Structures are given as structure tokens and as C-alpha cells.
Amino acid sequence: MKRILLIEDNPGDALLIEESLKRSSDDAYTIKHVVRVADAVNLLKAKHRFDIVISDLSLPDAQGIETVKAINKATKKTPVIYMTGTNHDSELALAAIQQGAQDYVAKSKYTAESLSRIIKFAIERKKYQEQVAQARAKTKKLRTLTQMLKVRTEELIMLNQAKDDFISLASHQLRTPASGVKQYVGMVLEGYAGELDPETKELLQLAYESNERQLAIVNDLLHVAQLDAGKVRLNKENVNITEMLHNIVNEQLGKFHSREQALTYDMVSKDIEAYVDPQRMRMVIENIIDNANKYTDDGKKVTVAVHETKQQIIVAVEDQGVGIAPADIPHIFQKFNRVSNTRSVLAGGSGLGMYWAKQIIDLHNGNLKVESEVGVGSKFIISLPKN
Ligand code: ADP
């Protein structure tokens, strides 16, 4: 059922339109007939819903383009058809179309069928125009949003760059004096400034260890700043992993023995070669072994092992430490993330080591993962692709 608002002051013309629509086979219509534009405007403004407005252009209270303007002002959404009486009117009707009317019909020329068809098309066309207008408005909004996002992204990139530059600069500046302290305290500890009494030596030893921890954090910051700035270029070569592990384990033994921990290496008889950046791979493995030492209680054991499959080389470091809860596992590879556990305060750290290690292994197209159980221990597994 189509609802029509008919604005027509000539009773004969109005009757003719109503009769034609009643005879139309296409659709059923309900018609609200008013004589003055003001009445039509009131109905439209009172939110009476009509599917279409059919209006004469010459009415008692408005003439020609005034009629068009008044109706346009009252409704934007309802399609409007104007009825023209004389030749002079058809120019006006064209102006009406330029102002958004859907169509015009010469009073002398329509039939029941043609009027019905014109109404139907006008309604459909208006619907389509509305959809196009909505789509245009959405596209415009999207364009504005895209532009805003672009500006915001550029700002964020600049901020991120500033942060990277700051971390890089600050850690560079911090490293020089900290290295100086390490060097001079080391010299005093070695007796360059004369014999030390045991108490002084013990205090200086603590200062030396504290400085070592500070240097380790500064180095972590530097490495991560380098990584985030995309400045890490791997210098890959064929490396004997069996031998590298052997050397690392030997170098770390002192640290483990001082806490009565065992560090064992399940050495394979065969040399296993991997195509890796030796310096960075060494740092990754040292980092993992260092964590195994930090997060394991005194007197426990850490095992390092390597083996190869057809496609991969697998290095594993297994400890009997505090372990990591399943919910925390994904977070330990995130930047600055320290998961609290029974040893984390004592052990100290920057929360950067595992983030850096994972990124470096990813750059090797490998994988770093951890299997762990709280109170039982953790196993960090590095898989590297074979060439
Ligand atoms: P941190 O400087 O805090 O050691 P890492 O990035 O090296 O930072 O490690 C992130 C977190 O992962 C640590 O804070 C610790 O909670 C956890 N973690 C790392 N290695 C182990 C391990 N072997 N056993 C238990 N927890 C570990």
C-alpha cells in the first residue's frame, strides 16, 4: 500500500488523479488530499509518513518555485512529483527537478497506467539516490578517518623513532662511565693499587658485581634499541654449534658452582654445523643459560643439549628452577615484561633478554619456545633450520 500526499487546489484535477490511481492495476494507494502548501508542510513536519508527494505547482498559498522550495524545506526524504498545467509550467517543472524533484507530469497527458508507473519509478529512484547519498557520506567519512589515521600513524612513528633514539643515546652515554667503573674497580681488585684488606675487597667485589648488573641492563637496552630500529643485520657463517655450546658451558661453570648448581652439557660425539650469526647466537644461548642460573635455586641442575633432525638443529636448556605458569609463558617474550616469581626480585633484570633472544632467533627463521611447569622447571628450546 503506497501512501500519497496530494496537493491540488483544483477539485477536478484532484478527482482525476484519485480516479486514475484507483483504476491502476499496479498498486494500491491511500491518498491524503490537501489544497494548500501550508497544510502539506504541516503534515510532513508532523512526521506523517508518505511514500510520495504529488503536487500542483500553482496553489492558493504558493506559486511555482515557491511551492517547490516550501516542500523541499519540509521533506528531504520523500520523493516529489509535480503536476504541470500549461507549457509555461514545464520550464518551472524542470527547475523543480534541478532542485531535487523526481519527475513532472503534464496534467493533460497521463493515463492511469503511466501515472502509476511514474510513481513507482520515482519512489525507487529516490530510494536509490538516498543509498548513493549515504554511500557517498560514508566514503567521505572514511576518507576523513583514513586521513586522520595517516596523520596519527605518522605521529606515532615519529614518537617511536624519538623513543628509540633516546634509548639508544641514553644507553650509549651510560655505558661509557659504567665501563670505566668496571675497569678501575677491576684493577683495584686485582691489586694494582696495593694490597687490600679482606673487608675492603669484599665491599669492592659487591660494587663490581653491582656494576656488572648495571652494564648488563644497559647492554640489553642497546641491543633492543638496535633491533627495534631495524639495524640488526645478521652476519651468518657456518658455525660448529657443538663446540660453541662446549665453550659457553665452560665459561659459565664458575657462576653455577658458586651456587652449588650443576651445569652439564650432553655433548654429542658428532660436530653439528649451523649457518648462523655466531656472535648473536652465542648471546642468545648465554642469555638462556644465565636465566636458568638466575631462576633456579641453589644446589639444582641445569642441562644443555643439542641434537639434529633431518631439517633442524635443536638446542635445549633445561633447568630445575621455579618454572613459569602457562598464562605467563606468552608474556616472557614481550618487551620489558618481567614475570614475578619466587626468584625474580633477587635475580633482577630488565625484562628484555627473552624478547631480544626471540627476535634474533626469528631473524634466523628459527623458533624459540619454552615448556615449563611451576616448581618443576623450564626447558627453553631453540630450533634452527638447516640450510
Ligand atoms: P629478565 O631480565 O627479567 O630475566 P628476560 O627477558 O630474560 O628478563 O625473561 C623474562 C621473564 O621470563 C623473567 O622475568 C622471568 O620471569 C621469566 N624467565 C626467563 N627464564 C626463566 C627460567 N629459566 N625459569 C623461570 N622463569 C624464567
Structural topology:
Elements: E1 2-7, H1 11-23, E2 29-34, H2 37-45, E3 52-56, E4 58-59, E5 62-63, H3 65-74, E6 80-84, H4 87-98, E7 103-106, H5 112-189, H6 198-228, E8 237-240, H7 241-257, E9 262-266, E10 273-276, H8 278-294, E11 301-308, E12 312-319, H9 344-347, H10 353-363, E13 367-373, E14 377-385
Parallel strand pairs: 1-2, 1-3, 3-6, 6-7, 9-11
Antiparallel strand pairs: 4-5, 8-10, 11-12, 12-14, 13-14
Helix pairs in contact: 1-5, 2-3, 5-6, 6-10, 7-8, 8-10
The chain binds adenosine-5'-diphosphate (ADP).
The site of adenosine-5'-diphosphate has 21 residues, from helix 8 and helix 10.
Distance between the first and last residues' Cα: 75 Å
Evaluate the radius of gyration: 42 Å
Runs with pLDDT <50, length 5+?
Answer: none
Mean pLDDT: 92
The molecules bound to the chains, other than polymers, are: adenosine-5'-diphosphate
